[in-house]
Amino acid sequence: MQRFEDKTIIISGAGSGLGRAAAIQIAKEKGNLALVDLNPAGLKETETAIRELVPNAEILSLRTNVANESEVEEYVAETVKRFGRIDGFFNNAGIEGKQNLTEDFGSDEFSKVVDINLNGVFYGLKHVLKIMRAQGSGAVVNTASVGGIRGVGNQSGYAAAKHGVVGLTRNSAIEYGQYGIQINAIAPGAIMTPMVEGSLKQIDPQNWEKVGESFVEPNPMKRFGKPEEVGQLVAFLLSGDAGFINAAVIPIDGGQSYKY
């Protein structure tokens, strides 16, 4: 398939995990890519992985702190300067933050998680949608979480931010559908990414793989999801194949969120 030929897609959080998987999938389908991440080494690794599969891929890598609105505005401007337009946006950058009971959750830590996971998504929407509305077309996928459609223990900042992402997604979709723009969210569950691995190591650094086994035991599919499985869903939602899907929040969690 070449669903993204002559199309430009921005991916934030492209330096690892879900962002990298989506970038590889879209590059294989001939999309131009603006890769955004705070970690330059991660961006380089993603670009290398893409070029091993698609040597002539068009890639713009942009080191960005998505919690800083001026830097978000800059990555949007640089993408338009390089490619002339923005056809799709995987608004994905995020962190988990430290784990603790709500009463013990540090205020600074809470603010940090919300700044990146919610404010960063808002800034991305704010500046990308301006371009898409002028074009009269575009597709956005925000990364929420199953923690954004139900609670997740010991992660107050993360759950609050991801619930906020769900609200932003639905609200923006209502506003911008009339301009030919679709805005949806994915709600990943237990996907084996560096962030999830880090979460398991917070619980038990020495036996984190064992913790992981118990973590997926309630899942009807009894396994972690793969980043590539999420990347394929994101590519579908950003493509013309998903032309009438709007304001949806789609769990990709093996059915765990429906079991309880």
CATH superfamily of the largest domain: NAD(P)-binding Rossmann-like Domain
Q: Specify Rg, calculated over alpha carbons.
A: 17 Å
User: Under the CATH scheme, which architecture of the largest domain would be assigned?
Assistant: 3-Layer(aba) Sandwich
User: What's the multimeric state?
Assistant: single chain
Average pLDDT, rounded to a whole number, is 93
Order of strands across the main sheet: 3-2-1-4-5-6-7
Summarize the helix and strand pattern as letters: EHEHEHEHEHEHHHE
In angstroms, what separates the terminal alpha carbons? 37 Å
Number of helices: 8
Question: Please, how many domains?
Answer: 2
* Apparent shape: globular
Low-confidence stretches: none
Structural class determined from secondary elements = alpha/beta
Assess the beta-strand content as a share of residues: 5-15%
The CATH topology of the largest domain corresponds to Rossmann fold
